[in-house]
Amino acid sequence: MESEKLRIAMLSVHSSPIGELGTKDTGGMSVYVRELARELGNRGHMVDIYTRLNGSRQKQITRLYEKVRLIHLRAGNNGHINKLALYGHLDDFFKELERFRTRQSLHYDLVHSHYWLSGRVGKWAQESWAVPHVFMFHTVSAVKNITVGSEKEPELRTATEKNLARNCDRILVATDKERGHLINHYEASPQKIGVVPCGVNLDLFSPWDRAKARQKLGFAQDESIVLFVGRFAPLKGIDRLMEAMYHLQHHKRLRLVIVGGDGTNTPEFQGLQKLARNFGIQESVTFAGRIEQDNLPAYYSAADVLVVPSYYESFGLVALEALASGTPVVATKVGAMESILKEGKTGHVVSNGSPRLLAKSIEKFISGSNGLSAHEVRASVLSYSWANVAAAMLDQYAAVLRAWDFHSFCCCGKVSML
After folding, report:
1. What is 119-184 written as a DSSP string?
2. Which of 47, 59, 303, 341 is positioned for an S-S bond with 227, CB 3.0–4.6 A?
């Protein structure tokens, strides 16, 4: 595979890989797409990432990295469109994609789509271009609906995902747990499912001196800092983290720093502010707002512990970023947490996610009782480099291309199937 350089069409229709991380529709998936594409480009493969144009000032073609282009295509009016409403514009998106591809005389070796909306477009591309389609689940709607009652996904999404799980050439997930979900909820063939984990940029995320990080961010040196990084979505569990902070009020120098969100005027932000007041912890909660990824290492290094209180995660990328920065993690039993955390040393997994148990686990790490240095914590995730993730992904591509070539060979009548 390394000697054969591929041309890959990567689809991320609803969320740009260079979008504003921490906002409503831009999170770990955008990081995954961007970092994977960069590493594939470093290895000599050509990657075109197609996403929706959502601003009049966006150039159609942006060269992100060596051999990696980001291409904006029109689908509906400029500006934000609800994900469900965007489904009705996917046909327009594919027509724009076809026009662009034809004008540039492009041929792709495979299509790699991310999330169900992109998967729908990827299926059309597979049929039109006669190339294999690799589809990656970043969350599974059937599981989300079971675990997060306040944030139900539409039946349209579930039906589309079922169809993709059964008809794509290869389906990918980030954990063995998600693989089980696809088999149990969508009757996906186990042989068609590949597991490729998330990665972490080890050059960007590394330990800082904690005192310097706190000085830079304006935090007091004698505070215990609990950190949350992520979108303000119900499934992220910020509500139970705030309740956990309520149970820790006897710690007088304890601060919860919340990174993410779409700004102070949103219902989500105002709801969290109200929740903090209801728990009587408003004076010990700092809303840092949306922070550019390049500035996140200072926040991770300034914190005593990162908390991932989610009801559901497909992986939990922020945990890798914190660990690579030398900061332990307390998490609920979601995503890859049980795999990437070394119990009691680099973190703790709370079995049932109760706020009281979260509080007890946080308390252990703000007391510094884990005894590991920041560099020892970082060492636990060195195998999760994006270079390793890209190598695993190329193995998946190689497998699907071999199967596709064999199928094409057989269908041409060159092999007797009797």
Report:
1. HHHHHHHHHHHT--EEEE-SS-HHHHHHH-TTSPPPHHHHHHHHHHHHHSSEEEESSHHHHHHHHH
2. 303
- The alpha helices in 187-235, defined as continuous H runs, are 210-217
Task: Using alpha carbons, select from 347, 314, 126, 324 the residue that is nearest to residue 235.
Answer: 314
Looking at residue 416, its pLDDT comes to 36
How many CB atoms within 10 Å of residue 283?
A: 9
Residue type present at position 251: H
Tokens at 261, concatenated = 């969100």
Q: Indicate the fold that domain 7-199+385-411 takes in CATH.
A: Rossmann fold (3.40.50)
The residues, ordered by sequence, that sit 6+ positions from 232 with a Cβ below 8 Å of its Cβ are: 24, 238, 260, 261, 262, 266, 268, 269, 272
Spatial strand order of the sheet with 329-332 comes to 285-289, 254-259, 224-229, 305-308, 329-332, 347-350
Among candidates 162, 167, 155, which has minimal Cα distance to 123?
167
What does the pLDDT look like over 158-201, one tens digit per residue?
A: 999 999 999 999 999 999 999 999 999 999 999 999 999 999 99
Q: Confirm if 373 and 323 have CB atoms less than 8 A apart.
A: no
Please, are residues 140 and 160 in contact by the beta-carbon 8 Å criterion? no
pLDDT in tens, 289-309: 999 999 999 999 999 999 999
Q: Where are the domains of the chain?
A: 7-199+385-411, 210-379
CB 99 within 8 A of CB 76: no
Residue 321: closest CA among 27, 43, 38:
27
Residue written as token pair 């990174």: 259
Residue 21's pLDDT is: 62
Please give the DSSP secondary-structure letter assigned to residue 314.
Answer: S
353 CB neighbour count, 10 Å cutoff: 18
Neighbours of 290 (CB within 10 A): 15
**Level-2 CATH architecture, domain 210-379:** 3-Layer(aba) Sandwich (3.40)
Tokens of residue 333, six digits:
């039993």
11: closest CA among 105, 92, 76, 97?
97
pLDDT per position as a tens digit, 347-370 = 999 988 899 999 999 999 987 766
Contacts of 367 (CB under 8 A, 6+ apart): none
- Fold match flag (7-199+385-411 vs 210-379): yes
